[in-house]
Design brief:
It is a single chain. Helix content is 1%, strand content 44%. By secondary structure, it is an all-beta fold. The strands form seven sheets. Strands 10-11-12-13-27-23-22-17-20 form a nine-stranded antiparallel β-sheet, with no helix packed on it. A six-stranded antiparallel β-sheet has the order 16-25-24-21-18-19, with no helix packed on it. It is globular.
Length: 311
């Protein structure tokens, strides 16, 4: 039997939640609560649209021009976002992960980043997905199995869906109310989305969602920080007019979150159909700025977690 284009399909369920994980990129392909979508799904036999649901490692977001300097050495990565000349979203998005554990409510997958041009380090990456009454928990753990220290960052790439219930029609992000507890935003250049400066959202009221309000026609493709937290957790909420919604929460290991309104006006079927919410251990271009960049010593491990839940 042929393997689906998105890889092997791993299905887990618990407490009304169901998720399907595709082995290529350790990708969250579907997530529902009582049959209602919480993320934008795609077909098992489809080539994954962009980075929808992929696990991002060993960096999230962009490395400008694909160039960086680490511990005295210069590195040049392949430019995987050629239209902007950046290295985008790490090295594992199109890698086949192997199964480490498969249970009814939990799966663990793993892959090794091999030394290569631009990233001459060896890092084992383990991705756990687990369902319980609190939603879908994902943990990404890196283990430096090489001889040299390695730069590291990670994050997920789900497109959240607030409503409506599956089969009842289509809504856009414009119809949903966003709560984003961030007091600072990283501004970017309009053409290449290269980082410029971290500024208070009070200087950019269009991106100030600390008080819940409809997204309407606002364009967002920015990283946010200085997150308000409750018991150490930051939480983004997205709700529809009928009261349904979805939330995402994460701990202090992710001091940043990228939010994107999925603007694809040239492709109407995907235009603004979900809100990308990407907790990140470091900001865009951290391999150059060094901000919140993790340096993994040989033998060291690093883990980060987040959770998606229905409202």
């Amino acid at each position: 039997m042929a393997v689906a284009r998105s890889g092997r399909q791993l299905r887990i369920a618990a407490a009304g939640y169901r998720a399907e994980i595709a082995s290529i990129g350790a990708t969250l392909r579907t997530l529902t609560i009582d049959g209602r979508d919480l993320v934008v799904p795609f077909g098992a036999d489809a080539v994954r649209p962009g980075y929808r649901g992929a696990t991002l490692a060993p960096w999230p977001n962009r490395i400008v021009d694909g160039r960086y300097r680490f511990e005295g050495a210069e590195h040049q990565l392949p430019l995987t976002e050629p239209e902007r000349s950046h290295a985008l979203h790490g090295l594992l998005a199109w890698v086949e992960f192997e199964d480490r554990l498969v249970l009814d409510d939990r799966v663990v997958l793993a892959a090794v980043i091999l030394p290569q041009t631009g990233y001459p380090f060896r890092v084992e990456v383990e991705v756990e997905y687990r369902l319980d009454a609190d939603g879908l928990h994902q943990t990404v753990t890196a283990h430096n199995v090489g001889a040299d220290a390695a730069p590291w960052g990670t994050g997920p790439h789900p497109y959240l869906v607030a409503g409506p219930p599956a089969g009842s029609g289509t809504q856009r992000v414009d119809d949903w109310t966003l709560t984003l507890p961030a007091s600072e935003v990283l501004t970017v250049t309009p053409d290449r989305l290269s980082p410029v400066a971290v500024e208070p959202v009070t200087q950019h009221p269009e991106w100030d969602f600390r008080t819940p309000r409809p997204i309407a026609d606002v364009f967002i493709d920015h990283a946010f920080t200085e997150l308000d937290r409750t018991d150490g957790a930051a939480e983004v909420r997205l709700t529809a007019v009928d009261g349904h919604g979805v939330g995402m929460a994460w701990d202090e290991r992710c001091p940043w979150v990228q939010v994107h309104t999925a603007d694809t006006p040239a492709t109407p079927e995907t235009h603004r159909i979900g809100l990308a919410v990407e907790p990140m251990t470091c900001p865009p271009d951290a391999f150059n700025s060094g901000v919140d960049l993790v340096t993994l010593a040989p033998g060291a491990t690093h883990a980060a977690s987040w959770r998606i839940f229905g409202i």
